[in-house]
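Hi V.,

You were right to ask for the full record rather than a summary. Here it is.
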Amino acid sequence: NGSEKKVIFQCELVKLIKDITMKKLTVLVSSCDDFSDCWEPYCHGLKKYWHDCPYDVFIVTNYKDFTDGCSKALKVGEDKGWGHNTLKALQQINTPYVLYTHEDFWIKRSVDNRVIEDYIAIMEQDKADYIRLFPCPPPDTDFPDDWRVGIIDQNASYRSSLQVAIWRKSVFKNLIVPDENPWQFEIHGTIRSRKYDKRFLCVKKFVGEKNQPFHYGVDYVCTAINKGLWSKAAKVYAREEGIKIDFSNRPNENWWHDFIRSNRLGQFCGNIGNFVAQVAQNPQKVWRKIQIGFQDFSR
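Predicted structure:
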């Protein structure tokens, strides 16, 4: 009887700790109904590599239902764009912290709950408002309280990157402008984030066995869809994980897309191509941007 009571007590204690932990953080998967083809692959990675996730996981949808045993749909109604949708989703979340991710960030290595809990503790101690769990971009200086993360400089580019990160929900909401899309948020939200000074952190890059890079955060396909096109990384993930994905439902990237991301020459050629396309579409808008740039440079 004594041993049985001890086991029951231990089980109740574990349940209590889990309940307390769940009340601190929610996993929010940014999405919409048009990207529902990513939900099952995302949940495959979640189940396989974070099967013991103790937090509620919500996938943002417009009207569609989705329940797979480890995640649920969080409906926001009419699609009014990323900013509006995200703010509406955050209003339905009761935890003070949010682990923000996207439906096409497919997890590919095990997630350690202890690491996530350590980062939540940093926030609980009021030492951070944002901890990026993927080093893209990496941090700029050391963080004295945890060797696994570093401080993102106040003037760093993409300081408010929408890679997977733990956010203090109140700060995230404060930085979002309803009419902005994710790309605008990463640029303009970065400027707005400067008022939080040294409170934005990011995991560091390390080199492990066989010179393989790793970090103490979340590792995932980044990204499965680029500008509406299936990426090569998505197909590699499907093949390696042995899962079936219908890649015929949207266009696929080609050699050019791989080239412009492969090295600096490719990036340069890609930028030139984008500039030419912008000039062809709206030359007056491009000329205004150039004029503004010269005015800022001359000040």
